[in-house]
Specification:
This protein has 223 residues and is of the alpha+beta class. It has one domain (41-221). Helix content is 27%, strand content 26%. It is built from 2 helices and 9 strands. Strand 5 (138-142) and strand 6 (149-164) form a beta hairpin. The protein starts with a helix and ends with a strand. Residues 40-44 have low confidence and may be disordered.
Length: 223
Amino acid sequence: MRKLNRKYGRRARGFTMLETMLTLVIVSVGVAAVFDSYGSFTVANEWSSRTATAELLANEIREFTRKLPRHDPVTGLSLDTGGTVIGWGLEPGEVQPTDIDDIDDLDGLVFLFAGADLNNLEMPGPIDAAGNVVDQYVISTTDPASGDPVQFGWTQSISVTKVNPFDYADVLSDGYALPGDSNGVGQIDVDEFPLRITVTVGYQGMFDSAPTAVTTLSWIIPE
């Protein structure tokens, strides 16, 4: 009977200081791991969300170009007597996205969430497939330091280049034309080349000095 009492007595004694400390260390490591995993998950989830938004905005530009001819439907694309290209880029009176009526108008344009300056080839944006500004991607708030109103959000930067119809990796100048032989065989006029459109979508946060590119989409408009 005494042996049993001593046995149960040993089992009933509490944790030692060493056991308590080891338990605290193990719990602390576990909690730290959980918080670290949560932080990594949050960052990954935010980046995934931004990537999805960027791809959506890039495809909005692609859809926007589907209804456009390669060059201006009125003036076209041509060369003057000195060989200077006429008709590439924005025409007079095209001051907002819905004025754009051909693909080469888009070359060098940036659709910007705030402070767009047409002299710098900037228009309000980002835009959707109809050329309308997508307001949900323009964030308006107040700078906590200065109290001034600020905006931040998304940008769509576009380039349009002529490419060799036999090698799309070969980029040509805007005014390039292929004269052909003496009989005109092999001739390709200045307005008959395929075009490559590249759109880069960027995101600029409240404390960012410039947009950071998130995704780039490129495709060919055949001749």
